[in-house]
TrEMBL record:
It comes from the Bacteria. InterPro entries: BUG, Bug_dom1. Pfam families: TctC. The keyword Signal applies. This is Tripartite tricarboxylate transporter substrate binding protein. Residues 1-21 form the signal peptide. The keyword Iron does not apply. CDD domains: PBP2_Bug_TTT. Keywords: Signal. Belongs to the UPF0065 (bug) family.
Amino acid sequence: MLRRRLLLATPALLAAPAVRAQGAWPNRPVRIINPYAPGGTSDIVVRFLAVGLERAFGQSFIVDNRPGAGGAVGTAQVAAAAADGYTLLVTNTGPLAVSVSMTPPPAYDPQRSFAYITMFGGAPILCAVKGDGPIRTMADYKAAAARGRDAVSFGSSGVGSVGHLAGMLWAQEAGVELLHVPFRGAADAEQAIVGNSTTSLWNTVGAHTGGVQGGSIRGLAVTSDTRISSVPAVPTIVEAGFPGSVASNWFLLAGPAGLSGEIVARLRAHLSAAMAEPAARERWASIGMVALGDPSPAEISGFVAREAARWAPVVRAAGAA
């Protein structure tokens, strides 16, 4: 139900200033590749905004889910696409700042393969277990993991995803070992907990807000230093006693390198206005997203480079390199 509600655009969002400047683009549907399975935070964000984009530009903006390799498969498809404005990418930390440190490296270069458009925001990672299970706190979780190697398993949206690395980062801080089980997306990871196939998950909080609110899964902690309004009862990882495990997953929109500056400017103008609407800010908060400002394309590129440098040692320590 949460995801369906998020797909319904508000009047304020639909009334965001139109930016249909004179010109040929777009004169046919635009495809936005999401390199993850349906149901995750990036999917919620892009489908919510696609409605307003269609109204503003008078064309269909079709979300095309292409999961695989922690988001690297779909991201590579956009890098190889024509820079004509008809193939865009919604992606996050994993494909742009984590995959670059893995072996083999992805078939793209985050600094050369993309034209960055706008930053949507960031979200902490949720550690969750089955709602009616015996593990109720991070202390319980650590005790269960301490019983032996791989005694506790956890799902994520894929090898090299921020959820994967956040779980491994916590395990290093806690001095335990976890068994990682990669999935194609958030929905599969959550279902594995409910079906008792895995013990837990580490994944973006917005993808599992409905499960936490409905009680099918229990949130043990969010990897932030302040609580998240959509799941206010879930303590922060700092409150749980693990300040070294603070982490965030950020989301952005990009196109292939060489994308027209005019197209970039038109998309930025609409999205900046749309995301500033009170209703949009409320929706962002409801799925655990926090604002990261409105950086320029050049600033986004620099941010991605800094994040890649930050996550590189974590990737190596987790054995994912």
